[in-house]
Amino acid sequence: MCGQENKAMSVQDTVEILTQECIELRRILAATSDDREKEKIVLKHIISRANSDLHVNDFQKGLEWFNVSEGLSMSKHLAGKIVVLDFFTYCCINCMHILPDLEAVEKKYTVEDGLVIIGVHSAKFSNEKDSAKILSAVQRYNILHPVVNDAKLSMWRDIGISCWPSLVILGPQAQPLVVLVGEGHREELFLYTKVALSYFKSHNAIRNHDLPVRPAQHLLPVSTKENLLFPGKVIGFEDENEDKIIVSDTGNNRIIIIRLDGTVEHVIGGYSPGLKDGSFEMARFNAPQGVCHRGDSIYVADNENHAIRLIDLKSKSVTTLAGTGSQGHDYQGGKIGKAQAISSPWDVALYDYKENEQLLIIAMAGTHQIWALFLQDTVWWKNKEYKAGSCAAIVGNGREANRNNTYPHAASLAQPSGLAISPDSKILFFADSESSSIRKIYLQDGRVSPLAGADKNPQDLHNFGDVDGIQYCAKFQHPLGVTWDSKREVVYVADTYNHKIKQIDSAGKCTTLYGAGKPSKDHVFDEPSGLGLLAKHNLLLIADTNNHCIKTINLESKLINTIADLKYPMKVVRPFDKVLDFSTEISNKEAEMTISFATRFTAGVEFTASAPQKWSLSHPESWTSESPMGSLSTPIKLELPEDDTPEELAITVNFVVCTNGQCIPRRLKILHRVLRKAGAPTNIEQTDEIEIL
Is the pLDDT score of 544 beyond 80? Predict the structure, then answer.
């Protein structure tokens, strides 16, 4: 029936058929090893759909758009383009997982090449229909392609979409070509895009015009590089009789340790995303979330690196304990250290299962499970043995649902995102965000039970709201954070999409404490995502994510304080926006090396003419440079003595750029590894390409 549909057939019918066709094509492609043969198979499919009389309806007028200066239309802007519609909702972990795939294909095929990706935001939760919240999500997840707020699901219904995420590839006349449901389609996405562009270009059907793109990143406050940017989680601890706060500064890809007055003690990582171990300055994270602390150790759920990291405060270093750096699809685990692939860890908590013996519990949002990293050789439930350093699933079967069970591996979870432990009762509380509930695990045997929120029907993941009450009568909306107060024996909840802080007692009674509906303007939160506690001073810590700050509330006096502006003492080394690595081979005899800079700007960015653009160079004392400081256009000239020893130059580049009327400082570090070899040139002219964002 491929390509032979009756003219009376609707777009919905076609999309349904295409979905099944693409599932079958996936099976065929998986069984085919030859790349040329794969392209032939896909080409046959594209040709069968290319001349369809069915076309997708245009976007409704009046919808709000992001990353463009005007709303897009199929007939005006997108005619002559291969269009990928990404139907997503920003809470969905599976939707987050395909963003790197979309970014990768965008980098290979540009708008001028004929490819346009459009995010069609189709909200699950009522909070997600708000364009201001979608804008924050677009900025938080670094989405650069156009996004439309389809708040009434008009395009969703017109096409007949049934789940998130769904990708629909359209031809140059908006004819449906391909439907891919769920995540994990990177190879197919590249293959279909390549073949479709090639085929339609050969028929002169592709146009190379650009689009009115205007990335929403320019709307962020300039100060977010100096302060916080979408902080995800927060915890408190006491260090040498002084209260400290650990913040996962998610949007800046770093962990920071601060005092209550905002003075920064340590900056670890940032600003550019990456997976790199090493010193606090050189280490890199990618959208870190949960943190927990014990002694000199901080454990980090490095979310978009799909890794667990360890920060050692004594050696001031970062190491990777688990994760490969890529998303895993393992639902059992058991491998040691970095050999174990994991998926979107969102929070971590240390549990003392024996005296002087701990394990690290992980909210594994990507597989809808709870995992553990065993820090010592451990005998766990049902006498199962785990080696030190191994990482394995301990609760949840990986199927997304709200199913409680006596047997931990028979339970189903729905994107667990926040953890809190009651040591005395040996209970783990977790925010099950997609079921909008708070649930608990008895850590002696793994039994999973409800605490408050959601519905008795385990398959109902849409039972959310904003209601105080007991157990199932209480309602939350996508809660992301929890913390345990042993003094009051309550769980505090960051009810994220209701913009509230709530508490639940041991009987499951839920009460709103702070947030929307309260008369005080100080109690206004915007998607708070993380909670912590400084018990000694009765201080509740709140990561107020979309307000880019940490708030503290005194649980006795109810006084609130906002930590919005950070103070950097001279001893604190501020992170670089980017670290670039280069290597050069030059003679081991006396030699001369000249380094120049070639700058490349992204759209809308340029140097600020009146601001100084400078570099500084540190290198072995025996080497000499013509000038230790100069403008960015001034070459660095180095005279190198006879030597066989490799050396490393560290160049710091400071400059100011303008974008959309704002002046923003940038700080780069360039590492030059100079290898001295016999027979290599004695005179080298090196040009470093610097991309200015």
Answer: yes
